[in-house]
Write a structure and sequence with these properties.
6PGD_dom2; N-(1-d-carboxylethyl)-l-norvaline Dehydrogenase, domain 2; alpha/beta; 6-PGluconate_DH-like_C_sf; about 260 residues; Putative dehydrogenase; P5C_Rdtase_cat_N; eight-stranded mixed beta sheet
């Protein structure tokens, strides 16, 4: 079995290691990629081919792990080339997911049925992380359990995995923004240590570790998180016909906070 990756950052490299440990043939390309990505891919031990077209054409399972803003374009450019399953693991809205599905369906029914949406719940490097899958043929990927991946099929509706990811992200990313802002304020009073100390009393002994992890992750990937918040707002715009979801001030504030971070 050959599994190919379009994009090779932390997600792809972490998943690749598990697959390689279970004797799966993993491939990608570094054509036109950054020096950081090239180094990561070369050190991973995967097979590197000349182009992403070659990756798509050679893969039994093609996995997209790019930024949310690139996801639709990548699916149209490379996802349609594979004769196997195309798995999107990007943090995209149900609307973007449907755009990909409809594009594939416009080509033929086989392409759309072989499109599977995946959502990573939890930090990719965590032992507790799980990949939720949805789509007509999502059960076909349960075999990945035998190759080191924690997989769960959530439904046959292509948008199901995206919905659960959006709902979780509304909570987790807003919490990250509030934690970051409160910490920066405490630092301005030279009370950073006290911030973690007093909140650990009410939030539990693991609060400091979790909060510092959130802050570090935000600093390292604030641009991607900003893109993810844009996808969340796109999702919310589609359900604003209900007065219950009319105002998204906290979500917009979270997006703006991520944009401000340098």
């Amino acid at each position: 079995m050959k599994i190919g990756f379009i994009g090779f950052g932390e997600v792809a490299s972490t998943i690749s290691k598990k697959l390689l440990d279970n004797n799966v043939n993993v491939l990608s390309s570094i054509n036109g990629r950054s020096d950081k990505t090239k180094k990561l891919a070369k050190n991973s031990g995967i097979d590197l081919v000349n182009s992403f077209e070659d990756v798509a054409l050679s893969s039994d399972i093609l996995i997209s792990t790019v930024s949310p803003f690139e996801a639709l374009e990548i699916s149209k450019k490379y996802g349609v080339l594979t004769n196997g399953i195309f798995l999107d693991l990007n943090n995209i809205s149900p609307k973007t997911t449907l755009e990909i599905f409809d594009f594939f369906k416009g080509i033929n029914e086989t392409k759309s049925s072989n499109f599977i949406k995946g959502s990573i719940i939890g930090k990719i490097s965590s032992k507790n992380q799980i990949i939720y899958l949805s789509g007509e043929n999502s059960n076909d990927l349960l075999l990945l359990k035998d190759y080191g991946l924690n997989i769960k099929v959530i439904g046959s509706n292509i948008t199901d995995a995206s919905y659960i990811k959006m709902i979780r992200s509304i909570y987790s990313k807003s919490l990250t923004a509030v934690t970051y802002e409160a910490f920066k304020i405490s630092e301005s009073f030279n009370m950073g240590d006290e911030f973690f100390e007093v909140l650990s009393i009410t939030e539990g002994k693991d609060f400091e570790i979790q909060a510092k992890s959130r802050i570090k992750s935000l600093k390292n990937s604030h641009e991607r998180k900003y893109e993810e918040m844009s996808e969340i707002l796109k999702f919310l715009e589609n359900i604003q016909s209900s007065n219950d979801f009319k105002d998204n001030n906290m979500i917009k504030a979270t997006q703006n906070k991520f944009k401000e971070i340098k």
